[in-house]
Specification:
This protein has one helix at 112-120; strands at residues 15-16, 22-30, 34-36, 41-44, 51-53, 65-69, 73-75, 81-94, 123-126. By secondary structure, the chain is mainly β.
Length: 137
């Protein structure tokens, strides 16, 4: 007899009230061999005008959160890729699904200050309890 395994399927989205989300086409710089997850907070660099992953300790615009990535983006190549993306410009988002940095697996680092900055650009983080996640595992 085989082992029984449990697989949770995540049915949630980063967006609350998806009918009220506005998107914009833009360009995202994705470093070599990097995967960015849905919910990654993005900033705009002054040097290129393109989006990059938000970095609270960064400079040149990378330290100012502007928008949120609406789906996963992967660069499996050995160099930087400028990827066309659709990012949210007006939305209510689940705070628990926001990410800072490619390696982030939760909303660690998404401080009140970061949330306030996102609100300045039309992204409104909201604390919610996701009832679609099973708690008996």
């Amino acid at each position: 007899m085989g082992n029984i395994s449990v697989q949770n399927v995540d049915l949630g989205s980063i967006f609350l009230l998806s009918s009220e989300v506005a998107f914009n086409a833009d360009t995202l710089d994705v470093p070599a061999n990097t995967t960015y997850q849905e919910g990654l907070i993005l900033a705009r660099t002054a040097a290129t005008g393109r989006l990059v992953a938000f970095n609270a300790g960064g400079s040149g615009g990378a330290e100012i959160p502007k928008t949120v990535l609406s789906y996963d983006v992967e660069n499996a190549t050995a160099g930087l890729v400028q990827t066309p993306v659709r990012v949210a410009v007006t939305a209510k988002v689940r705070k628990q699904r926001l990410r800072i940095g490619a390696a982030a697996t939760d909303d660690t680092g998404v401080t009140k200050a970061v949330q306030d900055q996102l609100r300045d650009y039309g992204i409104k983080p909201v604390n919610v309890t996701d009832l679609s996640v099973l708690d008996n595992q």
